[in-house]
Design a protein that fits this description.
The chain is an alpha+beta fold. It has one domain: 4-Layer Sandwich (Chorismate synthase, AroC fold). About 30% of the residues lie in helices and about 20% in strands. A five-stranded antiparallel beta sheet has the order 8-7-9-15-10. Strands 1-2-6-3 form a four-stranded antiparallel beta sheet, covered by helices on one side. β13 and β14 form a beta hairpin. The longest helix has 24 residues. It starts with a strand and ends in an 8-residue tail after the last helix. The chain binds ligand EPS.
């Protein structure tokens, strides 16, 4: 059913990460420099660990692009790990005589324990290397391609951090994009200013005062050998009406977005629009009344649905909130055991991030872009950008002027 499919491969400390993105239309302009922008954004953020000082993530196109445009064939991308020379013994591909000692102390909250039992491994490195969030670099590379694709149809995706370790900001797209002038030029320009602030914030927060509090919170957690999670908002602007479908469970846009976003490591909960708030209010205070005028077209006084009704985009901003747990690798490790002896031991500790919420925002933007690109390709059909653009002219969409 998926129009656009992608696979990733690669261990965190292996030679390289790879992805193949299949199902892209021909004629999409792409450059390695464009992909590098989102890869750099993923590496950002106060609270990231030492690895991000080693890596300068950048992909090389291996297939699917000629003279700067996609061919309609699978796009293959390679990202080489700069850290690899330090891991040639620990991560050797061939059997070696001086293999390192296996790791036996699973970290509570990580894939270590269940992975070791499931795959019958006595070395948790055989699990952690793939479960590491390093894999998300390739999702961001694939997502950057998808972002470029949907941009051709005036769809853009933003993300910003709303809380870190209990320090919360108030800014939300839920209040921002409502009413008759929700998407006029002035409102969109104000939104862009906010998003520029997010880009310059070390914690991707729209409010600099709250951002400073978040940084202090991360520093305090780091000093105690602890880690912090948080929450963030993903906003899709310009999605035409009718992405996804009400006719079958696995075609609903919220099904597709939930699966894509819940697949991001450490994400524990998702909300659309008003989210859990809908359970507490009567229907009259939840559903977004419909209006029309010649200037704005259809509009709503509220966007509690978060841009999705009946499993379809309804022309409003799609607003998603995600909740991320604190990373399980702690420099003051939790209690665990040695799986070989069953004797109590502190959990394994390796270099890690104290807080990766700002990075997760970029990964979530990527997974959202891939999902929107997929449903847009389904809606518009077409083997090339040119053909999709012809179809795009024909579909009824709410003009957002973006
Ligand atoms: C990551 C690379 C990893 C970790 C982090 C994410 O590199 P290293 O293990 O060499 O420090 O920094 O992954 C985790 C903390 C985790 O638990 O998965 C990256 O590129 O994002």
């Amino acid at each position: 059913m998926n129009r656009i499919r992608f696979l990733t491969a690669g261990e965190s400390h292996g030679q390289a990460l790879v992805t193949i993105v299949e199902g892209l239309p021909a004629g999409l302009e792409l450059s390695e420099d464009e992909i590098a922008i989102d890869l750099r954004r993923r590496q950002r953020g106060h609270g990231r660990g030492g690895r991000m000082k080693i890596e300068q993530d950048r992909v090389r196109f291996l297939a699917g692009v000629r003279y700067g445009k996609t061919l309609g064939s699978p796009v293959a991308m390679l990202l080489e790990n700069r850290d690899w020379p330090n891991w040639t013994q620990k991560m050797a591909v061939a059997a070696i005589t001086d293999a390192v000692q296996p790791l036996h102390m699973p970290r509570p909250g990580h894939a270590d324990f269940a992975g070791m039992v499931k795959y019958r491994q006595d070395d948790l490195r055989n699990i952690l290397e793939r479960s590491s969030a390093r894999e998300t670099a390739m999702r961001v590379a694939a997502g950057a391609v998808a972002r470029k694709l949907i941009k051709q149809f005036k769809v853009s995706i933003f993300g910003h951090v709303t809380s870190i370790g209990g320090v919360r900001g108030n800014f939300s797209a839920l209040d921002f994009f409502t009413g008759e002038n929700a998407y006029n030029a002035e409102r969109l320009a104000r939104w862009q200013v906010k998003m520029d602030d997010v880009e310059h914030s070390p914690v991707a927060c729209a409010d600099p005062v709250i951002g400073t509090e978040m940084i202090k919170n991360i520093d305090a957690a780091a000093a105690q050998g602890d880690s912090l999670g948080g929450s963030f908002e993903i906003v899709v602007l310009g999605a035409p009406v009718g992405l996804g479908s009400h006719v079958h469970w696995d075609r609903r846009l919220d099904t597709l977005l939930s699966a894509a976003l819940m697949s991001i490591p450490a994400i524990k909960a998702i909300e659309f629009g008003l989210g859990q708030g809908v359970a507490e209010r009567p229907g009259s205070q939840v559903h977004d009344e419909l209006f029309y005028n010649d200037n704005s077209g259809y509009y709503r006084a509220s966007n509690n649905a978060g841009g999705i009704e009946g499993g379809m985009s309804n022309g409003e901003a799609i607003i998603i909130r995600l909740y991320m747990k604190p990373l399980p690798t702690l420099s003051q490790p939790l209690q665990s055991l040695d799986v070989a002896t069953h004797q109590p031991q502190k959990a394994f500790h390796e270099r890690a991030d104290v807080c990766a919420v700002p990075a997760a925002v970029v990964v979530a933007e990527a997974m959202t872009a891939l999902t929107i690109a997929n449903t847009l390709c389904e809606k518009l059909g077409g083997d090339s950008i040119t053909e999709m653009q012809e179809h795009f002219k024909d579909i009824a969409h709410v003009p957002l002027g973006w």
